[in-house]
Amino acid sequence: MKTGYLRTAAVSLMLGLCCASPLRADDNYVTLNLTCYGSGVATRTESTNISRYDPKTKKYSTTNAQYTSKEPFEGTAVIEISGDTGRIKVPEPLVPALNTRSDGWFAIRELVVTSDFITGKVKLNFLNNKHLRIDRRSGLLTLDGSSGNFSGQCEAVDRFTPRKF
User: Fold this and answer.
1) N or C: at which end does the chain have fewer Cβ atoms within 10 angstroms?
2) How far apart are CA 36 and CA 138, in angstroms?
3) CB of 42 closer than 8 Å to CB of 94
4) CA triplet 95, 44, 91: central angle to 5 degrees?
């Protein structure tokens, strides 16, 4: 009985060694610090008061009008990923006045890290969500949403690199 158990254990071990894909440390736990330089387009809403003269009543009336415009910008995004959590500093032109950031950072929700891509969602406020996608081979970051977008080229930053100044 004992030799049958040992034989089964030995066969299982040999199959596991020859047929299993090799495990690497970064497959299960990723720690990344990225700086992404790029450009984007931000949607801005402006309001203004308009005065109109009514010749019939011989009085002025004032109304409020709102305009939206798309403004191009250049900026930097900073991303930190540790295991299954991540956070991002979004370029300032994309940050709405009412937002959910904490100490300048937005949480990356639904974070998925694979060998080729990093994806997730960034909730800027209750109306504004961005879809985050980073191609790990090319370094291209895209941050898309209804009120603007950003794309940039990411570089890995070593946290332990000495300061330049």
Assistant:
1) C
2) 12
3) yes
4) 30
Q: Which residues are CB-neighbours of 55 under 8 A, at least 6 positions away?
A: none
Nearest-angstrom CA–CA distance, 10 and 39? 57
Q: Among all chains, which residue has been given the structure tokens 């081979």? A: 137
pLDDT in tens, 66-88: 888 899 999 999 999 998 899 99
| CA dist list (Å): 47 to 50, 64, 66, 124, 148 | 10, 7, 4, 22, 19
Whether the CB-CB separation of 114 and 74 falls below 8 Å is answered with no
pLDDT, mean of residues 11-25: 37
Nearest to 123 by CA among 136, 133, 110: 110
Q: Strand ranges (DSSP E) for 83-125?
A: 85-89, 106-113, 117-123
